[in-house]
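Run log // design_07
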């Protein structure tokens, strides 16, 4: 398994794990606030991690660089929005200063303002972490695939993501040949050969091996082919 494949798997698994935490916290908020309080954020905070978990699992099963680039960009935008929205809601609040304050919830009850603050801070932290990982994956995929394409893999964007090499593996062989030369390369055109036949001699031409120049000999007498 290539190094890039291992890095990608661990990075996406980390995002799945943090998205699962955010989904759990968001589900708790949804049960307390929906449908009347913090409605927009509660809904979006359920959509972003759910979308991320499902998409990343499918991407780990099978993907291509062009799909990874598109989907990691979309997910990065989701988590950028989550992070910025969380900062707007709770970023300026110091949780310890809330003490024993209570805040209203949808069913007419209350919950600890300090607990709410800490859970929102956790959502904020995980959102920014997911954004950093996903935007890094997006940029890294572009760099690696573009570099591979420049080495001769013209269909690099459509190949399996598991075939994408890390930087130190760019010139590794697929079938014993450097990465950029997996496709048959035409030999350069050979210049024409002019043979001055000596009197009483026959010209014997043997085809060169591996595209090398042919072997040309002049043999005294007449050579009769079998």
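design_07 sequence
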């Amino acid at each position: 398994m290539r190094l890039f494949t291992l890095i990608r798997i661990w990075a996406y698994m980390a995002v799945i794990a943090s998205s699962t935490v955010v989904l759990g916290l968001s589900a708790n908020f949804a049960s307390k606030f929906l449908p009347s309080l913090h409605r927009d954020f509660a809904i979006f905070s359920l959509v972003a991690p759910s979308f991320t978990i499902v998409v990343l699992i499918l991407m780990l099963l099978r993907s291509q660089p062009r799909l990874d680039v598109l989907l990691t960009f979309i997910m990065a935008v989701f988590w950028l929005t989550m992070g910025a929205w969380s900062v707007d809601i709770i970023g300026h609040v110091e949780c310890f200063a809330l003490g024993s304050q209570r805040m209203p919830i949808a069913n007419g009850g209350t919950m600890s303002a300090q607990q709410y603050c800490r859970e929102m801070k956790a959502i904020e932290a995980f959102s920014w972490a997911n954004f950093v990982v996903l935007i890094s994956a997006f940029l890294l995929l572009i760099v690696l695939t573009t570099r591979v394409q420049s080495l001769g893999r013209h269909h690099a964007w459509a190949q399996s993501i598991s075939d994408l090499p890390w930087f130190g593996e760019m010139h590794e062989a697929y079938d014993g040949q450097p990465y950029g030369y997996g496709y048959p390369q035409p030999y350069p055109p050979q210049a024409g050969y002019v043979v001055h036949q000596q009197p009483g001699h026959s010209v014997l031409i043997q085809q060169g091996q591996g595209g090398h120049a042919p072997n040309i000999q002049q043999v005294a007498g007449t050579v009769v082919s079998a």
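The radius of gyration is 32 Å.
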